Amino acid sequence: MTRTWFITGTSSGFGRHLTEQLLARGDRVAATARRPESLDDLAARYGSRLWRSRLDVTDTTELREVVDRAFAELARIDVVVSNAGYGLFGAAEELTDEQIDRQIATNLTASIQLARAATGHLRRQGGGRYIQIASIGGQVAFPAMSLYHATKWGIEGFWESAAAELAPFGIGVTLVEPGVSRTNFGAGGSVLGAPLPEYADGPSGQLRAILSGELPPLPAPGDPAKIAAAIIASADRTEAPLRLTLGSDAYALATAALRGRLEALEAGRGLAHSTDADDVTAPAPAPAGHADHADH
């Protein structure tokens, strides 16, 4: 069955791979990018099955207009993919206010606003799928990436809540958490804060040297074409997995982080219970829906 997808950030990386593979299998794609002309080759090959629009995802007015127009002109959109984003690297102290605002606006606020713009359409048409390209950086954290991690942890929290809100309307949500992959996300697709000498010998200086080519690059086991194929296969499933961890590095990092977090939690169990009021005789129950949500 032919389906229609709406994807942001399609000029390169995962967005480009998704667009290419979906068109090749016969689906329709509403592709947005800052430079829609970057898709001229696909437009020449696939014609009307590729709908294109310029979009700066940080412009909320433009974002809503593009989403509304895509749904109006294409009648139905089955899958919405929030993919636009970039990395801001450097110690928190090295970053400017403008860099911080831009990172949050692009990686976090824009994803939330896209969800808000698309939700009404998906709900009125009886359901659909929403895919958020997140990152394993929303499950773990490393120095010199604090603002990037803030946006990725933030979007994880947003969708863990919003997924439960949208489930009654037949809207499935998946957070895609890839590890390091062979895209231009690193040196070609990232922004660096201005260096401070105090951080030169620490993680910030080391990461700066890696991205500039002074040190060997980080291992990048992820194949972006295979990641795109896995995302498409996930969307073809009837049930949407809340999280889709992709890449051997992502799996290893998530496993270690979750085990470490659980061990620390268990170590503090007695202290946690000791802070209950004196009239409490048993641990408080989990919030309503927590157990169901954990099964996703």
Automatic annotation (TrEMBL):
Residues 280-289 have a biased composition (Low complexity). Keywords: Oxidoreductase. The keyword Oxidoreductase applies. The keyword NAD does not apply. It comes from the Bacteria. Residues 274-296 are annotated as: Disordered. One of its GO terms (molecular function) is oxidoreductase activity. Belongs to the short-chain dehydrogenases/reductases (SDR) family. This is Short-chain dehydrogenase/reductase. The lineage of its organism: Bacteria, Bacillati, Actinomycetota, Actinomycetes, Kitasatosporales.
